[in-house]
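Objective 1.3, modelling of assemblies. Example input:
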Amino acid sequence: MIRDFLAHLDTLLLWGFAACAFVSASLMLVLRQPMRVALALVSCMVFLGGVYGLLGVHFIAAFQVLIYVGAVMVFMVYAIMLLDPRDESATAKYSKLLWPGIIGFALLAEALAVGYWNDLPHAPRGALGEPFDIARFSTAFLTEYWLHFELTSVLLLVAVVAALAVIQENRRHERG
Amino acid sequence: MIADLVIALLFIGYAISVLMGFGTILTWVERKQAAVMSDRIGANRAYIRIPFTQVKLVWWGLFHGMADGLKMLLKEDFKPRTYDWYAYAVAPWVVFTPVLLVFAVVPFGGNLTPAALWAPLGEWFGDKSYPMQIARLDAGLLIVFAFSGLTIIGAMLAGWSSSNKFSLLGALRAGSQMISYELVLGLTVLGLILIYGTVDLDAMVRHQSGTVLGFLPAWGIVYQPFAATLFLAAAIAENKRIPFDLPEAESELIAGYFTEYSAMKMGLFMFAEFIEIAIIGALFTTLFLGGYNLPWMSDAGFALPGGAAVAMPHGAVVVTQLGTFLLKVFVVCSFQILIRWTLPRFRYDQVLTFAWKFMLPLAVANLCVTAVAVWWIRS
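Predicted structure (C-alpha cells):
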C-alpha cells in the first residue's frame, strides 16, 4: 500500500501541481480585482515551478520562481499597491465573459482531446539520458542560445523605450 | 523505499524543530543580550512554580518566550474592516512559509550511513548513505533566492490589504528596500560561485574542508572576506532589522506593514523575522564559515595542517557535524543581535542610497576582482 503510494508519488504530485496551476491560471482570467488577479498569477507560477521541479530540471523551477515571481510579479504587486485601484467599476467579482469563456474553453479542450490526445507520443520514463543539470544548461545557453537571449533583451529595451515614448506623448497633450 | 521516506521525514522534522527552536530561543537571546550589552539584569520575571511548593523556576528568564506565545494565542484576534479580506488573511503565511522552505536546501551535516551508526539498522537500510539535507538539488543557491523573493510579496500584501496609511507606507518601504538589497545579496555570492564553480550548497561545504596556504581552513570568508561583510549587511537589511528597520520603524509608522495585525497573526510576522535570523546564520555558515565542518575536518575525520590525520568513528563525525553547525549558526545569530543593539536606525533615503550607491558598486567591484583573479590563477 505505502510502497505503491511512494512509487507513484511523483506522478501524483505532478498531477496535483498541474491541476493547481490550471485552477490558478483560470482564476487569473475570470477574477476582476487586480490584486487577486496578481495573486492568482503568482500562485500559477509557483505551481508551474513545482511542475518543472518534478520533471527534474530544478534550476528551471528556481528561475521560474526567481524571475517571474521574485522580479516581475513583485513589481506588478508594487504597481497595483501604489495605484490602489479601488474604484467601483471593478467590484464585480467575476468577469462578464465568464460563461462564454468557459463554454469556449470546453469546446477547445474537447477538440484538442479528440484531435490530438491519442496521437501524442508517450514519453518513456527515465529515457531522458543524463540529467539536464545546471552545467549542461549553462554550456548550451552560452554557446547555442546566446543570440536568442540577446535578441529578447533588445526586444525588452524596445518595449521600455516605447513605454517612455507613450508617456511623453501624453504629457505633451496635457501641456499643450 | 520506505527507509528513504523515514529518513526524509526524520530530516524534515529535525529541520523544522531546529528552526522553531531557534525562533523561540532567539527571542530570549535578543532580550538577554540587550540587557548584558546595556548592563542590566534583563528578562527574569517569568517563572514556573512547582505545584504545592514554593520553588520557583526562573532559569534566567527562559520562560518569557512561553509567556509571549501564550499571550499571542489568547489575545483578541482583531479583524479590521478591510477592502480585501483574502489578501489580509493570506499575507502572514506568504511571509512565513518561504522562510521555512529556504532551509530545505541547506546542508546541516555530512553523509549519514545508518548501518555504520548502529549495526542492526543495516538490516533495514542496507549500506545506503544519505546526505544530511532535506533536498539535495543542483540549483541549491538559486532555490534560496527564489524562495526569499516570495516574502517581499507577503510584506507588500499585508501593508496594502490592511486599509491603513501607516501600513501602506510601511509596505512601500519594505518593497523598495527588499528589492534593492536582494540585488546586492545576489551579487555578493556570485564571487563564491566563481571560486567554487557550483551553486550546490553541499558541494560548496565539501570544497571548504580543504586548506589554503597550507594551514588556513579553505572557508569562504578566507577567500572572500569582503563579500562576507557585504553579504551579512545586505542580509540584515533584507530581514528589515535595525539599523534597516524602516518598514516597521515604530517612532514613524507604529508597526509599519503589520500594524493592523494582532494576536498570532502578528506573531507569525515576528516569528518569521526571528527564524530568518537563524536562516541568515545558516546561509552565512554554509557559504562562508565552512558549513557543518570544524576547521580541517571532513567526513573521514581531521586532516591537520602538519600532515597528521585523525580518523573518527561515523557516529562521532555525525554528532560533531550536527553540533558544529548549530554552534556556528548560533554565533552568527548572536552577532546579528549584537549589531541590532549597537547601531541606530538609518534615515529612509540613506537606506536606499546605501544600497544603490555604496553596496552595489562595491559588490560589483568585488565580483570583477574575483573574476580576474580566478581567470589569472586558472590560466
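Chain A has two domains: 1-88, 132-176.
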